[in-house]
Specification:
- Pfam families: HEPPP_synt_1.
- InterPro entries: HEPPP_synth_su1.
- It is built from 14 helices and no strands.
- It is mostly helical.
Length: about 290
């Protein structure tokens, strides 16, 4: 089996001097990338392309995620902020261009079409999510579910390329891993000093809040600092911990009975950070 080295390979593109100097980037899609690499490496004919396929998919995902970091307004007058915004746009385009370049120069034109269709679907789902958020027509469960769907689209597109024995299990395993990943990120958000409107906590509180509390959340000039007591009241962080624990147990049960057993053990090792996080001692969570 080849050694997994996709993040190191991606650094050739992500550690560009201009990007590092003027802006920040989203987190590398580590769990989904490792999953895709593990499954492709078990393919009788595609194993030789596992690094290429996984690398370009991770770059496309980084491109999409980088564009998501661009603010929807352009009212920042300060030069540094404006430059960071411009670099995010250019960095996202740059990562996407590397995907086209690497696949076209290696002759894998079919995969360009497959991933391009997945990009369109991911953007369609993202726009639907944004519209529901703007209209406040979203539940907390729907928020998590739709976020998982957006984040898995590029990787789901490989289902038809995998060997038949993995065709059914790939989407299920991918979604469970991605749900754990999303929940872990939501926990980090819930523990931040400034609660976010684009978070599970917001939609959870909105569902449970009183009329006056909903007015506070929906004000035209929201003050996230004033939301903190609501995050405490409705136990946002503890509930997210419980959701992550439930998801991780479901994932472990799935992988422990996985065929082939060797791949199941490999996938369990990929999910080890989730298990370690849940088992780590921590102070009693109040938010």
């Amino acid at each position: 089996m080849n050694t997994y080295r996709i993040p190191e390979m991606a650094k050739k593109y992500t550690e560009h001097d201009m990007i590092q100097k003027h802006t920040d980037l989203p987190l590398f899609p580590e769990f989904r990338t490792r999953l895709l690499y593990a499954f492709l490496n078990k393919h009788s004919t595609l194993a030789g392309y596992s690094e290429l396929y996984t690398l370009v998919t991770s770059l496309v995902q980084l491109g999409l995620d980088t564009h998501d970091m661009v603010s929807v307004t352009n009212d920042a007058k300060e030069q540094k902020s404006a430059r960071s915004r411009q670099l995010k746009v250019l960095a996202g385009d740059y990562f996407s261009s590397r995907f086209y370049y690497l696949l076209s120069h290696s002759g894998h034109i079919d995969l360009i079409g497959i991933l391009s269709a997945a990009i369109c679907e991911a953007n369609r789902l993202k726009m639907n999510l944004y519209l529901k958020m703007k209209q406040l027509k979203l539940t907390a469960d729907e928020y998590i579910g739709q976020l998982v769907e957006v984040k898995t689209q590029l990787f789901l597109s490989f289902a038809n390329l995998l060997e038949e024995r993995f065709y059914v299990v790939w989407p299920e395993v991918l979604r469970l891993f991605t749900r754990c990943e999303v929940l872990l990120q939501e926990i980090d958000r819930s523990e931040s000093s400034q609660p976010h409107q684009d978070s599970w906590g917001f939609w959870h509180v909105l569902q449970q809040a009183t009329r006056e509390e909903k007015k506070l959340l929906q004000s035209e000039e929201p003050d996230p600092a004033k939301w903190r007591p609501l995050w405490l009241k409705y136990k946002v962080t503890p509930q997210l911990h419980q959701m992550l624990d439930t998801c991780m147990k479901e994932l472990q049960d799935k992988l422990q009975s996985f065929e082939p057993e060797k791949l199941g053990k490999e996938l369990l090792s990929i999910g080890e950070p989730f298990r370690r996080y849940l088992s780590a001692p921590r102070a009693t969570q109040e938010v």
